[in-house]
Amino acid sequence: MKYKFLFLLLFFVAASVVPALAHDFHTSITDIKYNPRTQSLEVSLRVFTDDLENAVSKFTKTKVIYNSASAEQQQQIYAYLQTKLSFELTKGKPLKYKLLGSEAETDAVWMYVEVPVKSASVGQLYVKNAVLTEIFNDQMNIVNLNYKGKTESALLQRGEEQKKFDL
Predict the structure, then answer these.
(1) Is 118 helix (H, G, I), strand (E, B) or coil?
(2) What pTM was computed for the model?
């Protein structure tokens, strides 16, 4: 009887703690801002830390625990993003970009990307964001694009991972 009580107590404690550690929704936020001075897109991408760790672990086939100070891990994140995130002024011609770095924030990671566009004005922009869609069927990637003071938003998800923004 004593062990049954202890088992039930442990079960209820574990059941109340586990949901606090996990999250029920799968989402990312990508903020894109055009900088006319540098003629580049400044991109900030926020994902949950555990989701990023899972995705990069699956991508690299090694166990990844996020560490912003690890140059190797920054390269792994960059390689993963190259397969999931793209920007095109002309359909089918992805722009090269660089990962400036990343940083942790409580239960999330912010990744910072710079995309040179080498143009004083941009007429259209194709954005592909398939981050984490290979992990979660219900992954939703919110993209906010700020161009010359005007903001447009899109919701990208599995099967609809690219959006054309007319600017």
Answers:
(1) coil
(2) 0.84
> Would you say 127 and 32 are in contact if contact means Cβ atoms under 8 Å apart?
yes
Question: 3-state SS of the chain: helix, strand, coil percent to 5?
Answer: 30, 45, 30
Question: Mean pLDDT of successive 10-residue segments in the chain (167 residues)?
Answer: 38 41 82 95 98 98 95 96 97 96 96 94 95 97 96 97 96
**Is residue 129 a contact partner of residue 141, using CB atoms and an 8 Å limit?**
yes
Q: State the chain's maximal CA–CA distance in angstroms.
A: 76
Contact between residue 126 and residue 87 where contact means Cβ atoms under 8 Å apart: yes
How far CA 68 is from CA of 79, 105, 129, 138, 153, in Å, comes to 15, 11, 22, 27, 28
